[in-house]
Input
Amino acid sequence: MVYLDHAATTPMRQVAIDAWVEHAHAVNPGGQYGSGRAANAVLAQAREDIAELLGADPVEVVFTGSGTEADNIAVRGLYRARTKEGAPRRVVASTIEHSAVLETVKSLAQTEGAEVAWLEPDRGGHVRDLSALDDPAAVATLMWANNETGAIQPVREAAERANAAGTPLHVDAVQAVGKVEVDFHASAATTLAASAHKFGGPRGSGILLAKRSPVPLPVVLGGGQERGLRPGTVDVAAAAATAAALREALDEREAENARIAGLRDQLIERVVAAVPGTKVTATEPRLAGHAHLLFPGAEAESMLMLLDSLGVEASAGSACSAGVHRVSHVLEAMGVDARDGMGALRLTLGRTTTEEDVDTFVAHIADVIERARAAGSL
Ligand code: PLP
Output
């Protein structure tokens, strides 16, 4: 089997599994007794470790149930907190955000009176025109790296411009944490979302970094856990596993990035040589593991099915609803035409990817594309 979908999720690291198992018996960390205090000590250590690794203070680390949840809490919560204090009902967001952010922004427009100013990417997948950030807004949001193309966005500049207008910036760093250097304080962002399963931690474990001020209003109500931002009993084992995975991911980051980018470049070069008409989308800067390719005339569904039958697992990186395959909103925003966009393939390499995986993929791809194109022209 050749797994080329590491951006969707990556296998759990052994250190994370070990930490998870070690603390699986932890009780409620809010308990006012010995075992509760012991659980709370493990949680506090995980919080401290994550804070240190991501350039934040421990109090700024909020454990959530997913990256999606962290995005929702930050964007909706900041919008509510700021508009309550009289900020304009304006949101600035890029058109290439993950649906966790995009759907939240659209919902704010539909149900809470927000006017949205959109930041558009160029053809290489990067947002360069940040001028919409110069007018005050309740909240602005820009992802650190795009999940489809891997394109890395100018978040530091965006945060500075937003802050100059008095606007807090939320950064969805779910694809970036563990892969590029993320320092929360240096980024000047107000909130930042990460997700453990993207860097070898458990699925269902998210991180929200949130400055002391302005603080989002809670979106989910309950007990006061996690500064009231994410009420609910915290999963101590998942928090410990997340911290362990993050530490190892960052220890290996530079060497792994060099290795993975080498394999990725080799893969792209060999596919372009083997398949006529191949187009490479994102330009630099981009994540080391992302190869995002367009095969005009071939449909993603056919390509994925053929690859799957050969034991190669990849993704189209685009929306598939009710069996109808559409061009992704990211490619549409980049100005990719429909025929090219229908033939998008996202190959994401990671820690377990080997040279043999690349060889296997390259050995099959010309035949797969030829057959997918033939199926498309029927
Ligand atoms: N944001 C980005 C950029 C992502 O790639 C993902 C996951 O694919 C998410 C948010 C959602 O993260 P989670 O799967 O932890 O909810």
